[in-house]
Amino acid sequence: MDDAALGELGSLRKSIDNIDAALVHLLAERFKCTQTVGRLKAAVGLPASDPDRERIQIARLRALAEEAELDPAFAEKFLSFIVAEVIHHHEQIASTGAISAEPGAPQG
After folding, report:
1. How close are the terminal C-alpha atoms of the chain, in Å?
2. Is the pTM of this model over 0.70?
């Protein structure tokens, strides 16, 4: 690989690293919000899962993905993974009042 290609590769990888860092910070903020939602739901006796909202969010995210030229199926899988974690945390909050601190687990 020549120097120009190596330079471009390094630049692209730096951009990817920056995007990954931003994604981690965004996910952390999202889970902070969903943790608060989980405490509110538990306080008022709402179920951890809201299938109607989940369906709306999946449709919304698929449309956003299409607009952004991202595979909508991938976007749906990604959101489904996040929602499953959130529901798990909401169930923990409802049963114990707190989220267990599993190493590497999203908190929220």
Report:
1. 44
2. yes
